What does this fold into?
Amino acid sequence: MGKTNPPFMTGVPELLVLRLLSQREMYGYELVKSVRVVTSEAISLGEGVIYPVLHGLEKAGALTAKRKPVNGRTRVYYSVTPVGRDRLERLSGEWDRISAGVDSALGEAGLA
Amino acid sequence: MGKTNPPFMTGVPELLVLRLLSQREMYGYELVKSVRVVTSEAISLGEGVIYPVLHGLEKAGALTAKRKPVNGRTRVYYSVTPVGRDRLERLSGEWDRISAGVDSALGEAGLA
DNA sequence: ATACATACCTTGAAGTATGAGGTATAGTGG
DNA sequence: CCACTATACCTCATACTTCAAGGTATGTAT
It folds into this structure.
């Protein structure tokens, strides 16, 4: 049934979604593909990850949704609110702190 | 009641414990303090985190435990087994992959 | 006596990434 | 005309794991 809490991924989807949407509005399906691109294929998030994150952030007031019909299909575009920008900054700082800590610990011996 | 799944921390305790023990054997209480030191105070893990990780890794065959009486108190020293070294390498590579991906995504716009 | 550091431990709570599965329309190749 | 793929939205159960708080006990300093 697949792994549920893979190492180092907690919080990453939310951070990436906020980061991407802070540059331009996008819809869910587009985000799925964009994450792969901006992480150089290092990280791949399924729709089952993206959509819940989107809904959660919208409920938290960090995103606003806008429905647009395109070619008969409906797309839901998301934009970042001021609340979302605060959240991005906070999360981003948290990431920097922790990744610096881990890298510091890992590099104790043979760093290039 | 305190946060349970803080962002970016999943897998980090295990990685740090394996990394520290790969350098020299240590006991739980010592690890708690060492983590703070090697991460430059960026990461602090309580005993409620360290001990379960230790027990889990021992059960998985990644660590071996050795009881030593010191000054009337008992210390349990842990060492990394070959299985643990494999696990450390795998986790370490995973960390590098994901942190590189995130950094790449975060740096898309205004990197210093 | 009081308090703090050492040193081990367990427990309940809660968040969350994942794969699989579900619906529906548009376009493409045979 | 039919099958298949891509687009585009969605939900759900599972299982993992960190965390704070609390518990036991000894040594040391005040």
About this structure: Chain B touches chain A through 36 residues (CB under 8 Å). The two ends of chain B are 39 Å apart (CA to CA). The mean pLDDT of chain B is 94.
